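Provenance and format

Records in this collection were gathered into a single text stream. Each protein contributes a sequence line and a token line. The two records reproduced below are adjacent in the stream.
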Amino acid sequence: MSARHLLGITFGPVQDFIAAARRTSDLWAGSQLLSSASRAAARSLEDQGATLVYPPSSSIRADGDVPNVVVAILEGSGDEVRSLCRAAQDAARSKLVEVGEKVLSDWPGLREDRYRAQLTDALEAYSAWVPMDAGFGPAFRSLGLAMAARKATRNFEPHRHGAKAPKNSLDGLRETVLPDKSSSILSKKLRLSKGEQLDALGVVKRHLGRQESFAALTRVASQEWLQTLDPAHLKTLIDVHEPMVNLEVVRRTKASQFSAFPYDASLLYPNRLAAERRESPDAALHLDRLQQVLNHLWKQVGQPLSYVALLLADGNRMGRYLQQVAKSNDPPGLELHGRLSQGMVNFADEARRKVTRLGGQVVYAGGDDVMALVPVHQVLNAARELDQAFQAQLASLPGDEKPNLRVGVAVAHMVEPLGNIRGWAHDEERLAKGDGSDPSRAHALSVCVYQRGGGQLRTRLSFDQTNDFDALEQWMSAYRAKRLASRLAYQIRGIAERGEQQRLSDGVVEAEFERLMLRQQKGDDGSKLDDDLALGIRTRLGELGNLRQLGTEMILARWLSARTEKDLSRGNQ
């Protein structure tokens, strides 16, 4: 019997497609693979007469990222819906196999049988559908329960292509598809580390990342340093880099925000340059010339910053708001859901534009989820602009408790494993959300600097409390203008720590703080603190009521304002 049904499909696993990554290009390529599969499924449903609820039809015909969740309205019997659902899942898997076959044709020598077997069952799909007899609202609520039950009922398929072979280095789940002895050409083009093994998805990720020349961590980290160079020095660097592209010592990047210096920038760092000189004797003359140029620049302006920020943003209260929308029976409920879906597509597009303008690189932007690499000095700007863009897209929707955004940022050294950095960013995102007891408090940014060699500097800022952002930006501006000695923040925190260790009274600690401030204002320590900035520090202490927190906030601002490694070394004095 024909009837209207509401269908939901989710694709994954996210771990295999996105989280299993050693390079930024792995992250990007994995998200693109999953997005392509979801797009293929959504198009299949629409081509078969379904009405897309999420993502909206406009987004699946464009080039942006598509979320791994598809919701659609279908007409037909239960068997017909099942058939359409299977066709959509088959379309998603076929898209993945299609991409994989194109990659295989470019890389002879891979273990083809194992490669194809892994691609065939790499994509997981969970689906459920419910009748819409009572309208969209009740059906949407029922679909949520049905999908939760379906995900809890997992399929455990037999492992059909196991072998006594090394496992994939990205996640250790599947066997390698690389030959026993990889050629030097294969290793270089797939950018394999010594002893690294890749399964089928890993090879596809490396291939896609190589084709698109996704910007490396080093390019994002060095953005501020490169912008400080005068045109003559920048041209000299370009002239030295360009001949090394054909030697595959240097990778070109196509992203528009990096057009002033369209290379991966890894050789701007002493350790990377030294390693390349050992590994690429055929480029010795070019590398020697680059060394000479950089020695001059490092002496003049310092070495580029070796820290980068990974930002994760996600919507709060989305599920709760959708349930409220679902209570408005169709057509109002369906119309509101469509407006919300389109708003999230617009937000993702705006997120790409904003991150690009700030000199960052979006890894994924689909729905209310954003993953991006940003230069350290743009962390606060990126977080605030994403929040403003999110709120703007929801401004016309009804309700007092509309969704809002939370943002987590991990600032880490480039040598840290990418999986660790991503995990830390997720930790910060969870800290931004809080314990969930008060949804309004989840509208926040949590940022942490994970210092190499140990130690963390963390702060949590509410987007609704602009004075917290203003204070950090005040310290950052003062550091940039050299109005604030970096050691002052450490001295302030040191007073707080001594007070705690020695159990000093509040009066003694306050007096010690005042003596420090007066010395700074007089310039007794060699650098004079101006009165306006001194007033700002005292005012901020009154707002926080915690001397240690003030010191930590000012140290964090030192990191967020750094342009070069020299800036950070001063911050440790």
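Adjacent record:
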Amino acid sequence: MPPKKRHKAKQRDFVVFEHPFSQVPHDILIKGLIEAGKSSQEEFPLQLAAIINLIRSVNPLQAIATLSAYRLTMSVTDTGRMRPLHKNRKFNQSHIERLQAISLQIRIDELSPTPPPSETIQKLFDTLPDLGDSFRLQRMAVLEQERNAEQKSVGLLQEHLRLHTQGVRNWGYFKKVVRLARRLCDTTGPLFQKHPGITAKDLVNLFEFLMERLESLMTARMHEFREIFSEKTSEKIIQKYYALNPKFKDTGAELIQFIKSKNLSSEQIKFLILSHSELTLADDLTFSPHELSQHLNLPTDSLSRALDKLSLSFGDLANLKADFFFLDNPVWRKPIIKLSDTSYFCAMPQVFFSFIFQILEKILDGDELARSSYHARKAEFLESEIAELFGRAFPGCTLVQNYKWLNDRKEYENDLLVRVDSHLLLVEVKSGLISWPALRGAPERAKRHVEELLLAPSDQSYRLATQIAEVIKTPDLSDTLLPNFPIPLTQVTTILRLSVTLEDFAVLQSNLHLVKQAGWVAEDYPLSTSILLADLEIVFDVLESTAQKIHYLKRRTELEANMIHLGDEMDLLGFYLASGFNIGNAEFDGARLQLTGMSRIIDQYFSALDIDIQKTKPRLKLSQWWADICNKLEKVQFPTWSEVANIPLSFSFPEQQRAEKAFKKIKKHVFKNWRNNNHLCSITIIPNMRRSDALGLFAFRDRDNKHRHKRMKNIAGQMFKNAHVQRCVILGVNIDEGHYPYSTLAIFLRGEENFAKGETLVTYG
């Protein structure tokens, strides 16, 4: 029987709207962009000079600490909703990284001791994002130059890489990134130890500790202010503030007298105390190697070497041009500021995890033997991680690693074969490093990385998929094309190809149309889907059922081939949860989907988990009946069940609702009119012309059970009158027995004479 209670997940519907510039004539749009570019070329040096003068006029450590505290720290509600303490949404980690680099141009004898007033902090909050916008927009002036179509497309790809390098930092959710980094570094053993003084795993522990230390400090400050501001009078607020800060040299009497003389409001008093507390922020973020050694149980001298390896001192960047810091910031590789041999400052320990792969490579500079060993271990790590991930994601599946095969007398090796029911997944993995020139948009280097990390694994899986398809079609070719193939192919009907990378290539792996538009691969070439390891873990975590995981990977490949979309993998996953990738003809009519922001529900969930707040996991938007149908199919697991489960998943939520509503009427009609041979007993859902799988919902009474297969065959015959329908699944419900979610199921394939043939495969009970 159906469950009495049905819980509907609260989730935002997918909404399509037209881009505001889509109706602007192309020549006018280009002219506007050129003007914006020229204007930014004039504004950029002025804005940069103003920020340099601003940071030189105050104590830079206090300014960096304050910006970090207020922008990179979130307030969290009991439900896990997070809000930055500063309201400028454009302000992010990259702006503080840039300010830190500019500050490190100041020589030690030029440092100002002046604490930054609130006006200066606010100005930095406002102008640093404007500076970043100007740096980006000034490149629009290049549109004035004559360029052919290929040059324009390459320029678009370059801009994509530069924008990502300039402002995007997260390649995964923090705790998952830390766990992944620790597992990788654990495989390197003492390989790094002779360079920074401690192992790579120790480095992960060090920066995780600095991150936890920063979070604890900021949490303690917020609790302290909550306690202080709970006092009822101005005098008690100040007394509480000083009582909780016994290190202050004065007693607060002068401040109380000042407040009384100025007749300050409670809001002004709170602002005054917050500003005063900022004076100690830089001290809070300063530490010594001895302090760290006590917490990490590592030798002080080893930690000193490691900190020196990953730090810069004031004046170290004095000879560099500040406009280089947007696309090649030394702070990315060395996020710590060294103040003395026993004193270090770090306001952004998360930078280490944002750039961990580049940092580890930099540490091994000049040691080619160690570098080669690290690359080999990294490749082995990725292959092992992928095999374990698929093993967890698809319990009971068949996994085979490192199958060797021949093509044109050349031997190839597949990284992982995964068979799930009738689906065979060909997985190729790439652990190569993304170089800085490529991330800065250097076309030749970027093209080389595209060929190595995206095209080469796709080529390899395509060759193997082609040979497997030939063997499935003609089994007698097995010994010739696939000798000793480790997985039986008799039940395989669908081959899926997937490439997995360890390092984020500016989310280019999620936007492969940019590669095709640049002419680096043929427009009609069947590129395999490419997903970052950290993202694939999230996909498999969120999509708990096997059917949904298979459907996501399958439809993800089709979507990549059929339309242009912009967004990272989490945006695509959010889009899938909202729509199931079921968007009808929009997939084929040339629409370009801007998906940025679709990941919000996923971001909120995993960000809450990072701070140990449990929220309801985001789920694919399905009606309860539809979800239960898919769950039943997965539980029964008859041959090709995964193919069958893909069919109901390929209809949108509104289609599910309409079908369920119509079927309720059908059941009532059958109950009254079942004796009539021509009674209405079903509804059918016919896909759009680009899809070939149809679904039928059939109601019958127990007393008419003997006619059910004939009726189901007739229903299939009606569906096959639609020429594009090649297969249909019919779910039968015995309305007397009340079986839920269905009683029987039949699969029909189009026959040679355009008529249905098939058999009932599953019967309830």
